[in-house]
Amino acid sequence: MTRPGRRASALADVAEARKTAPGPTGYGSSNFNIMRRARRVLSTMSLALSDVKRIANLSRLELTEAQAGETLEKLNGIFALVEQMKAIDTSGVEPLSHPIAAIEPMLALRLREDAVTESNRREDYQQPAPATQDGLYLVPKVIE
Predict the structure, then answer these.
(1) How far is it, in rounded angstroms, from Cα 42 to Cα 30?
(2) How far is C-alpha 5 from the chain's CA centre?
(3) Is 131 left (phi over 0), alpha (psi -120 to 50) or beta?
(4) Which one of 9, 14, 70, 144 has the fewest CB atoms closer than 10 angstroms to its CB?
(5) What is the pLDDT of residues 88-135, one digit of tens each?
(6) pLDDT tens column, 59-99
(7) Quick one: 53 and 84 in the same domain?
């Protein structure tokens, strides 16, 4: 896990590198190492209690200290799970149309053939309309 001080320092480095870097991408040769270090520090994401309180404040949520602590543990647990999932090599795995297909192929979504099952009844539906033209409903102009 990343200490909050290192994370804040890395964020400040990124902001400074983008401000001073020449070119449209924000990556100057002199700032390359700063950006690389910041990416490495930020890649292992974790939150501090102050981050949770700030997010709660921005979301207009009132959290007690205990609730903020519980929320911090849950969010950092989610970030740890994401890091574990990022570490898995999925280069040879084919994407699934539905996640349950990996466990039980018989429960996967069955796609039906795209075929017309009803006739076109536009004429019948438009017959009671006061005004139609070329298959469209005509309405009076209300905004000039």
Answers:
(1) 20
(2) 26
(3) beta
(4) 144
(5) 888 888 877 667 766 776 665 566 778 888 999 999 999 999 999 999
(6) 999 999 999 999 999 999 998 898 888 888 888 888 776 67
(7) yes
Beta-carbon contacts of 139 under 8 Å, excluding residues fewer than 6 positions away, are: 131
Q: How many CB atoms lie within 10 A of CB 52?
A: 22
In which domain, by residue range, is 74 found? 45-89
CB 13, CB 58: distance < 8 Å:
no
Residue that is written with structure tokens 């996967």 in the block: 108
Pair 53, 82 in one domain: yes
Is there a domain that residue 125 lies in?
A: no
DSSP for residue 61: -
Distance between CA 20 and CA 18 in Å, rounded?
6
List the Cα angle 81/83/89 in 5-degree steps.
110
